[in-house]
Amino acid sequence: MENNVIVVTSGKGGVGKTTTTANVGTGLAKLGKKVCLIDTDIGLRNLDVVMGLENRIVYNLVDVIEGNCRMKQALIRDKRHQGLYLMPSAQTRDKSSVSPGQMVKVIEHLKDEFDYVILDCPAGIEQGFQNAIAGAQRAIVVTTPEVSAIRDADRIIGLLEANGFGQMDLIINRLRPEMVRRGDMMSSDDVVDILGIPLLGIIPDDENVVIATNQGEPLVGGSSPAGIAYSNVVGRIEGQEIPFMNCEKSISFFSRVTGIFHKA
Amino acid sequence: MWFFFRRKSSCQVAKDRLKILLITDRVNCSPEMVELIKKDITKVISKYMKIDTENMEVQISAKKGNSTKGGKAPVLYANIPILDLHKQGGQFL
Q1: Cβ contact (<8 Å) for B9 and A154?
Q2: Which of residues 12-71 of B touch A (CB under 8 A)?
Q3: Assembly ipTM
Q4: Mind listing the pLDDT tens digit for each residue in A64-89?
Q5: Which of B9, B25, B26 minimises the CB distance to A184?
Q6: Span A5-258 CATH architecture
Q7: Where do the domains of chain A lie?
Q8: Which long-range contacts (CB under 8 A, 24 or more apart) does A241-247 make?
Q9: B53 phi/psi in degrees, rounded to 5
Q10: Looking at CA atoms only, how far is residue B27 from chain A in angstroms?
């Protein structure tokens, strides 16, 4: 399959890369896809905790690369979802224990066996980032509607372009519709306009994300706002046409009276 | 339009800041460098005419063009009000 290796990246830390990786991966598995998630943040692994699989780690990515175990031994199967696997990162090593070439080899092994390979990229633009993007053909750029996150996302998009990425899609995380309406937060249109890559999803700020992370069970597919938004993202990755939530436009008095500036 | 009557929203402030920030990021040109360019332009033009250095603007901004990213290409924009066209050898500093 073409373009089935996706890297989730953002530049800035704490904008929701790991949460997005976990939810997109789980969502695709719920649609019956065979999915492998790879945590590439060596030294600071987190994806296992968000997925609720932290107690099942025996081997990790660095063990596979160094030949201490076979690929199959390091992959953790998520018992709750058929076809969902996690390759955890090493906690006690650092980024220099993996090279981009080695990552490419690992992905070459996995990409024929899985419908999707999704890489959770570390924050920053150093070696961890270079490792994470090495084997991918497609990127999901996660940002929040804040100046610092958008600036970093723009830098990341530039670096991905320079590395030959053809397909880059944007997820705007933690959007607060009531703040957008007040004019105190950039809208998704503003962010798309600035960054200039296609929009893949808008995830509203939702406290259920924290609850889901506490419990180690991604909320995709649930009835919470973020759960629905992530389901929509998954559908769009699978090629479905799903309209974006339109809850953020500021309604001015003039347009309210005339009704001509807003379609329903 | 109706938004003329409102104060500038923090969203608009963020957008304006980002616009300048990203363009200087993309062309790898720092605000200090723009400041240096501004000084040099002032120096050169002051040789020929008296200009209003207080109110001149020099900035790198975006112009719709054929660049890939966001369809915007960076341009160096300078707005230099002239005080006296005929005054030769005006102020140098």
Answers
A1: no
A2: 12, 14-15, 17-19, 21-22, 25-26, 68-71
A3: 0.78
A4: 999 999 999 999 999 999 999 999 99
A5: B9
A6: 3-Layer(aba) Sandwich (3.40)
A7: 5-258
A8: A244/A188, A244/A199, A244/A201, A244/A202, A245/A202, A245/A204, A247/A177, A247/A204
A9: -70, -25
A10: 11
Per-residue pLDDT tens digits for B29-85: 777 888 899 999 999 999 889 999 888 888 877 665 544 454 457 788 889 999 988
A178: tokens are 């009531």
- Please judge whether A194 and B70 are an interchain contact, meaning their C-beta atoms are less than 8 angstroms apart: yes
Q: Do A186 and B21 touch (CB under 8 A)?
A: no
Tell me the whole-structure pTM to 2 decimals: 0.81
- In this complex, do B21 and A180 lie within 8 Å of one another by their Cβ atoms? no
**A-to-B residue pairs, Cβ atoms closer than 8 angstroms:** 53
DSSP state of A47: H
- Residue B16 makes CB contacts below 8 A (sequence gap 6+) with none
A contact test, residue of B18, B28, B61, B64 with most A CBs within 10 A:
B18
CA distance B7 to A238: 43
What is the tens place of the pLDDT at every residue in A14-51?
999 999 999 999 999 999 999 999 999 999 999 999 99
Does the beta-carbon distance from B11 to A184 stay under 8 Å? yes
- In this structure, are residues A97 and A90 in contact, taking their beta carbons and an 8 Å threshold? yes
